[in-house]
Design a protein that fits this description.
The chain is α/β, with parallel strands linked by helices and 445 residues long. The chain contains 16 helices and 21 strands.
Length: 445
C-alpha cells in the first residue's frame, strides 16, 4: 500500500469512531476523502465541514463515488459493514483496492514509533490519557483514539509521524495488523465470540499480539502474558496505593519498578480508572516522558465522552452516560456509583449491544444489572447482526433478580425516567442510547 501515490480515499462506514479518526488524518494530509455512512452524526458533520464528501444513502450511488479512478483511489471498510452493502459491492466489482480499517492503520503507523493500547476494557480511556500525556510533554505524537477525548473534543490528536499512539482493537483480530514498539494489555475478558468462537482462541490471539511488540509490553497483573505488570489491587511492577477522593480528585501514589513514589491527582472516579491512569503512566515512563509532565497531564485530563460522562450533575439530579456494553464494564460503573452516591438508589437504563454478545453473556449481564436498585431495559441494538432466535431483552429481563425492573421502548423512556423519581440515573450501552440520552437531557432540563 503506497499511500504517497494515493490521491483519493473512500471510507465505507466513515462515521465509525476509528474510521473517522483516519479520515481526519488523511484530510490533514490534503488527500481527497469520501465516504458513506447510513446515519448523519456529529462525527460525519465534522468531517464534511473539514472537506470530506459523505453520502448517507445507497439507493443511488453518488456521482462522486462513480467518478473515482481505480488507479489513484483506495477503499477502506470496517468489518462491521454488511457484505450486501451496495457501496461495498460496487467497489468490489469495479476493481478497486479494498482494505480493512486495521490494514490502513497498520500502514500509517509502520514507520513510526508506535505505542498501542489493547484490552477488552479500558483501552479507549487509557489511550486517551496516554495521548494527553504526550501532548502535555510536547512529544508531537499523533494519537488515533477509540473515543472522543474531552480535552481535544476529538478522536484524533494530530502531531507528527515520529510517534503514534493507537487503540489496538481486538475485534476481527484487527490489532495483529500493528507492529508496536511499546504496548499495554489492560484486560482479556472474553468478547466478540462471534469472531473467536471460544475463550481459548481469544486468549491465544492476545498472546500473538504480545509477541509482535518489539520493546516493552505492560500488562495488567494476573493476565497470562509475561511483561511489566501494573495493579491497584496487589503488588506489581507499577502499583497504585493509598487511594482516596479529595476535592474532586482521585488521589493516589504510584510506585514504579525502581521503588520511586509519585503522588497523583486524577479527576476520574473508580478503581478501574486509577488502573487506566497507571497503565498510561507506565507506558509514558517506559518511553521516557518526564514524570512531572505525566503528573501534570493526569491532573488536567478531562475524560472521554460516554465514559462515565456527566450529562446532568446538580443537587437534585445526576444523569451519567457510559459506553459500558460488557458485564465487566457494567460492574465497574456500578461500583463507582456506589462509592460516589452511597445513600442513593440508582436507576440503570441499559441497551444491550449485539445479539451474539447478549447470547454469550446472558447470565453475566443479568448478574451485573441486578446490582442496581432499578433497571429499565431497552431492546437489543443489532448493529451489524441479524436476530438470533430466543435471544431478546425479554429473556434477559427475566434473569435479572431485582424486583424493580421493566422492559421498555425508546418512546416510553423519558416518561418512565421521570416517573422513577430517582436522583441518580445511569444510561449504558454501545448502540444509539448515546443519542437517546440527549433527548432525555432535553426533557429533564
Amino acid at each position: 500500500m503506497e499511500l504517497n501515490k494515493i490521491e483519493n480515499i473512500y471510507f465505507i462506514g466513515i462515521g465509525g469512531i476509528g474510521m473517522s479518526a483516519l479520515a481526519k488524518y488523511f484530510l490533514s494530509l490534503d488527500k481527497r476523502v469520501y465516504g458513506y455512512d447510513k446515519v448523519k452524526t456529529e462525527l460525519t458533520i465534522g468531517l464534511e465541514t473539514s472537506g470530506a464528501i459523505v453520502s448517507y444513502s445507497e439507493d443511488k450511488l453518488s456521482q462522486e463515488m462513480l467518478s473515482l479512478n481505480v488507479d489513484n483511489t483506495i477503499v477502506v471498510y470496517t468489518p462491521a459493514m454488511p457484505s450486501d452493502s451496495k457501496t461495498f459491492k460496487y467497489f468490489i466489482t469495479s476493481g478497486f483496492q479494498l482494505y480493512k480499517r486495521a490494514e490502513l492503520l497498520g500502514a500509517v503507523t509502520k514507520d513510526s514509533f508506535t505505542l498501542a493500547v489493547a484490552g477488552t476494557h479500558g483501552k479507549t480511556t487509557t489511550s486517551c490519557i496516554l495521548g494527553h500525556i504526550f501532548e502535555v510533554d510536547n512529544q508531537k505524537a499523533t494519537s488515533f483514539l477509540g473515543g472522543i477525548s474531552e480535552n481535544y473534543n476529538s478522536n484524533l490528536i494530530l502531531g507528527e509521524d515520529k510517534i503514534t499512539i493507537v487503540e489496538a482493537d481486538e475485534y476481527d483480530k484487527s490489532f495483529l495488523n500493528l507492529s508496536p514498539n511499546i504496548a499495554c494489555i489492560t484486560s482479556m475478558d472474553a468478547d466478540h465470540l462471534d469472531i473467536y468462537k471460544d475463550e481459548s482462541y481469544f486468549e491465544e490471539t492476545f498472546k500473538t499480539f504480545a509477541k509482535k511488540v518489539s520493546d516493552k509490553i505492560i500488562v495488567k497483573k494476573g493476565l497470562p502474558i509475561s511483561g511489566i505488570t501494573y495493579s491497584a489491587y496487589e503488588p506489581a511492577d507499577y502499583m497504585a496505593s493509598n487511594i482516596s477522593f479529595e476535592n474532586g480528585y482521585c488521589c493516589f501514589e504510584i510506585t514504579n519498578p525502581k521503588g520511586d513514589v509519585v503522588f497523583i491527582e486524577f479527576a476520574m472516579v473508580g478503581i478501574h480508572n486509577v488502573e487506566n491512569a497507571l497503565a498510561a503512566y507506565a507506558m509514558a515512563e517506559c518511553y521516557g516522558v518526564n514524570k512531572e509532565s505525566i503528573k501534570k497531564a493526569l491532573k488536567s485530563f478531562k475524560g472521554v465522552k460516554r465514559r462515565f460522562s456527566y450529562k446532568i450533575n446538580t443537587d437534585d439530579l445526576v444523569l451519567i452516560d457510559d459506553y459500558a456494553h460488557h458485564p465487566k464494564e457494567i460492574d465497574s460503573v456500578c461500583s463507582s456509583l456506589r462509592v460516589l452516591y452511597p445513600n442513593d438508589e440508582i436507576l440503570a437504563v441499559f441497551q444491550p449491544h449485539l445479539y451474539s454478545r447478549t447470547k454469550d453473556f446472558m447470565t453475566n449481564f443479568a448478574s451485573s444489572l441486578s446490582k442496581f436498585d432499578k433497571v429499565l431495559l431497552l431492546d437489543i441494538y443489532p448493529a451489524r447482526e441479524l436476530p438470533i432466535e430466543g435471544i431478546t431483552s425479554d429473556v434477559l429481563l427475566d434473569k435479572i433478580t431485582i424486583e424493580d425492573k421493566l422492559k421498555c421502548n425508546k418512546e416510553e423512556l423519558i416518561s418512565l425516567i421521570k416517573a422513577s423519581n430517582n436522583r441518580v440515573i445511569v444510561m449504558m450501552g454501545a448502540g444509539d442510547i448515546g443519542v437517546e440520552i440527549n433527548k432525555v437531557v432535553d426533557s429533564l432540563t
